[in-house]
User: Fold NTP transferase domain-containing protein from Chlorobium phaeovibrioides.
Amino acid sequence: MKAIIPVAGVGSRLRPHTFSHPKVLLNVAGKPIIGHIMDKLIAAGIDEAIVIVGYLGYMVEEWLTKNYSIKFTFVNQPERLGLAHAIWMCRPHIKDDEPLLIILGDTIFEVDLLPVMTSTTSTLGVKEVDDPRRFGVAVTKGGNIQKLVEKPDTPVSNLAIVGLYFLRESGSLFKSIDHLIANEIKTKGEYQLTDALQLMIEGGEKFTVFPVHGWYDCGKPETLLSTNEILLQKGGSTKQYPGCIINEPVFIAPNASLENAIIGPNTTIGEHAVIADAIIKDSIIGNYAKVGHIMLDSSIVGNNAWISGNPHEINIGDYSEIRVR
Ligand code: UTP
Assistant:
């Protein structure tokens, strides 16, 4: 079965890191966000991925083809007109009667995909949330979806749509998106997938929901760090470093160098990073970063960045150089 993974967005909420890298290549718990997604998809039997690229798309393409051997089709979305538009761009690569799995490129999930992919109805992953106003939500009755609402101002349901969609047949989805685009029907300025699915429901298509308990957003610095923490807690490294204290869970790239450091908990140290005389907790340190004479908490340090001195919480992009005396 084919999976569609839209990753064309600019990731503005994760600047400065996304100035030099697409969001999905940011490291969380030792591998890029999209690596976590691909591993889950391949384990579930997905053998072909259609990846919608745009902003820094060549980097995504290069990383995926280097690290995975399944068939990839890269579709360029030149303008970010919304998720429905992104999916619509894939039309030439999918037959109308083909089933389809769509997964957002910035969401790491924990769910058994096999029952989803063999569902007899189209079905959407949902999770109960306290404040549904930030999400698309599903109003259900007896397990069937009655209505979908994108970012409701008044709470109609607390079942947020998590970004994992299974469609029995892709043809009717494309027809709905045709309708949105032909009539310029946008919500919050974009062609929304939620609106296209709602049109299908209105047209009589049956949709059910399935629960996604593990749903880890990576779209903002705070959620990237909390996802890093959650994933590390599921299994970190146990290697010992002489002269250092490692407070698990952590991920430390095998080729990183550590000297007189206290690392963790909940910390990722990237490839070839050099850490000396430092205390680092709840943080993500990029590849080839150099960190010294510092105590860091809840911080994100980009690739090739250098930092030494005594700030406590920082968010610095690639190639930054900060020396505080
Ligand atoms: P987001 O809106 O969360 O991602 O879209 P973004 O645009 O990259 O991030 P911000 O809002 O600027 O911080 C969810 C997913 O859908 C993809 C994005 O790449 C992301 O993986 N997307 C969204 C597209 O591929 N095309 C679009 O037109 C919109």
Notes: The chain has eight helices and 24 strands. The chain has a mean pLDDT of 92. The chain has two domains: 2-221, 235-323.
